[in-house]
Design a protein that fits this description.
heterodimer, A: 497 residues, alpha+beta, Beta Polymerase, domain 2, Cytochrome-c3 Hydrogenase, chain B, five-stranded mixed β-sheet, 16 strands, 18% strand, B: 251 residues, alpha/beta, Alpha-Beta Plaits, Rossmann fold, 2 domains, five-stranded parallel β-sheet, three-stranded antiparallel β-sheet, 10 helices, 10 strands
């Protein structure tokens, strides 16, 4: 066997994962990826001597995950890059190189991913990084950030333009890096709920859900149906909140102030519903390993139902208005196109991938939580432009609101909200994936001989999608960048961790 | 056309008419009410606190470190810690953020921020701020954006977020200040013409919060420059921010 077959929220023994040589492993995953698998995790784990590289591929139609590994002896400092064959690996290989110093030979662009604190080459400084240069008579550069004009997270964008037209955009990230991965393996893993919620505030529920499900699987904890339903409800609230925020920004960027304020005010109702449930507008403290901290009683359930029905009415109204306005459509349509083939090649995920026609949604492909009982269906659009990404947000919001209203009308009866902790299975690996507001979040944990977490790996959906934004603006005017950016609405801190 | 009119009617009145008197949902975790007499020093609270904000020899909570997660309240066998929905938490001195059982919330609001005459004279009618996100989780950033939305609408008080530090009277820092952002943060401050103010928004900015022990931070900025206003919260509720500034401006 070259691969250990596992699934979402399943724990396997570390010993069952094959160990190959790097060259063998590369041949293996080129073959698997040609057959339709795609990478969801690719990371190094430092051993007492050398490094073990873990690779996890997803087979979406079969709801399977495949895990394999290879070891690099101390002093073994390179292997043949696979990015040339399968571009989906480009960022994973860059990250692996940055953290371990093992070089993928033949990689086209080994730029540091985030200038992480624990990078192998501490002499590489963010400020010294040589950007791409485009030369020619009418060529000029526009540099933006890390401090932006609005209230946004930091990142640097460098446009290489000819006149108004963007030839190339280089995205420079890492400003938000806080060293969360090493902190996860430092001290008791059960105490990391708050740290996980602080990875990205707008995906706090998605991250804490992945973290909690992962620990529950590794420790064999059963979560009650009611707690599962409350978690799923919170995840959908978080999704609608982010979509409303993106739509508000998009409308603002094309000068549609009514749309902007209306979507913004609608978002307030959604996040205040989270406040009603757990005392935080971002759902902090709601989800803990074992279940949830807060119940939804009959009175609150009726209140939420009323609010969500009103929100759905508001979303219908503003959606029908916005997507019938010629002024809005003329800016959205045919702008910032990422076609389906490109999206697949660079391994885009989540709502932006679905707007380019890729049928990828963890809720349906690798179902978790309440989606196992009451499934979510995939929506896709084909045009891959700003319009498709915006319209997807509208469609998904409507779908999510419907899902939540159904869920609230039949909440499973009371049971234990928060189960007792157990002990973590030693020498094991668990993968947990959640479809967050931006796409798939992947958490992987490897435990040591005493059941302690020795390696915790995150992959945020923004990790896959930032490069999609760089490709979307090629050939567009510089002034179209804000709407392209907002239509992706990616996370900086999720990428930088 | 008709849709546009329907949208206007549906939007209705969204703004909070009296920001100073507005209250947040009772579930909100704001000012902590402590009871030292019932505390048995079992240390459960300090054991679960993700950011070392609770001390039990005399029961105290440092709101500059507290993430308002409520884990201590749930771990306490005697209900000695109760978070209330009182949200006016800002202070102009770091030490004022440490509260004990004798701290009365209403008195706290009066004492913690001393309205200075020069601040009122300079910025009382108009305060323009530049936001610098430095390692923040986007929670405080979204809430700072919300301060200017149709609900909280702080622009009505002349408080506005501007696009350039050159147009600003001060900066608002969110996030624990990552190593990679330290230079840009200081550079932005220096681009603001004097006299200027510095506001630390959120637990991460005030103390590093859950990241305080991370080697990937660089918090030298806080040794070098004096912070004029601390606004605690995780994330900071817009009402906390707007009321903190109004108090700071003596309004």
């Amino acid at each position: 066997m070259s691969w250990a077959v596992t699934g979402n929220n399943q724990t396997i023994e570390l010993a069952s994962i094959p160990v190959k040589t790097p060259a063998e492993l590369c041949t293996e995953f080129i073959e698997q990826c040609r057959r339709g698998a795609r990478p969801v995790a690719f990371f190094g784990h430092k051993l007492s001597s050398g490094v073990r590289l873990f690779v996890i591929l997803a087979n979406d139609p079969r709801s399977e995950l495949m895990a394999s590994s290879a070891t690099f002896a101390e002093g073994e400092k390179s292997y043949p890059s696979i990015t040339g064959e399968i571009p989906a690996f480009h960022l994973f290989e860059r990250e692996f190189y940055e953290e371990t110093g093992i070089r993928p030979e033949g990689h086209p662009w080994l730029k540091p991913v985030r200038f992480s604190h624990n990078r192998a080459d501490r002499s590489a400084k963010m400020a010294d990084y040589p950007f791409f240069k485009v030369e020619g008579e009418s060529v000029h550069e526009v540099g933006v950030g890390p401090v932006h004009a609005g209230v946004i997270e930091p990142g640097h964008f460098r446009f290489m333009c000819s006149g108004e037209k963007v030839h190339h955009l280089e995205i420079h990230l890492g400003y938000q890096h806080r060293g969360i991965e090493p902190a996860m393996a430092d001290g008791s893993i059960w105490k990391k709920s708050k740290l996980v919620e602080s990875i990205a505030g707008d995906s706090a529920i998605a991250n804490s859900l992945a973290y909690s499900s992962l620990l529950e699987s590794t420790a064999g904890i059963e979560v009650s149906a009611r707690a599962t339903a409350i978690r799923t409800l919170a995840l959908e609230l978080e999704r609608v909140a982010l979509h409303m925020s993106s739509m508000s920004g998009l409308c603002g960027d094309v000068g549609d102030l009514t749309g902007s304020t209306f979507f913004g005010a609608t978002r307030t109702y959604v996040i205040n519903s989270l406040l009603d449930i757990c005392g935080s507008r971002f759902g902090y403290s709601l989800i803990r390993p074992g279940g949830v901290n807060f119940n939804i009683d009959a009175e609150l359930s009726a209140k939420l139902l009323k609010t969500l029905e009103m929100v759905r009415e508001r979303v219908f109204l503003i959606g029908e208005r916005t997507f019938n306005m010629p002024g809005v459509l003329s800016r959205f349509q045919h702008t910032g196109i990422v076609d389906g083939k490109t999206a697949e090649q660079i391994n885009m995920v989540g709502i932006t991938a679905r707007a380019s026609g890729l049928k990828r949604d963890i809720r349906a492909d690798h179902p978790f939580g309440f989606y196992r009982l009451y499934p979510a269906y995939k929506l896709t659009l084909d045009s891959g432009d700003v319009f498709a990404r915006a319209y997807m947000r509208y469609l998904e919001s409507k779908r999510s609101l419907g899902y939540m209203i159904d869920l609230l009308s039949g909440l499973p009866p009371g049971g234990q909200l928060l189960a007792e902790r157990g002990s973590l299975k030693p020498d094991s690996m668990t993968v947990s994936m959640v479809e967050g507001p931006r796409g798939e979040l992947v958490h992987v944990m490897i435990t040591g001989a005493n059941g302690e977490a020795v390696r915790y790996k995150f992959k945020d959906p923004s990790f896959n999608n930032w490069f999609g934004l760089a490709l979307a603006v090629r050939g567009e005017g510089v002034s179209d960048f804000p709407i392209c950016n907002k239509s992706f609405d990616l996370s900086y801190c999720g990428y930088d961790l | 056309m008709f849709d546009a009119i329907k949208v206007r009617i549906k939007q209705g009145k969204q703004y909070i008419s009296d920001v100073k008197r507005a209250e947040i949902n009772p579930k909100f975790r704001g000012f902590p009410k402590l009871d030292d007499k019932t505390c048995t020093r079992c240390d459960n609270c300090a054991g679960v606190c993700p950011s070392g904000a609770v001390t039990v020899n005399t029961l105290k909570i440092d709101m500059g470190k507290c993430t308002f997660c409520g884990d201590c309240q749930r771990a306490c066998p005697n209900q000695s810690i109760q978070f209330t929905n009182f949200h006016k938490l800002s202070a102009d001195r770091r030490e004022a953020l440490i509260v004990n059982e004798n701290t009365d919330p209403n008195q706290y609001t009066v004492d913690a921020v001393q309205s200075r005459h020069e601040i009122k004279r300079l910025f009382g009618r108009s305060l323009k701020l530049r936001s610098v996100s430095a390692g923040g989780c986007n929670g405080c950033e979204l809430e700072l954006n919300a301060c200017s939305n149709v609900n909280f609408d702080m622009t009505r008080f002349g408080i506005e977020i501007v696009a350039s530090p050159r147009h600003a009277d001060g900066i608002v820092i969110t996030g624990p200040v990552s190593e990679n952002m330290a230079y840009a943060l200081e550079d932005t401050l220096l681009a603001v013409p004097s006299p200027r103010i510095i506001i630390a928004m959120g637990t991460c900015a005030i103390s590093g919060g859950v990241f305080q022990n991370s080697p990937a931070l660089n918090r030298k900025f806080f040794d070098k420059y004096k912070i004029d206003l601390y606004v605690p919260g995780c994330p900071v509720h817009p009402l906390t921010f707007v009321n903190g500034i109004l108090r700071f401006l003596g309004r």
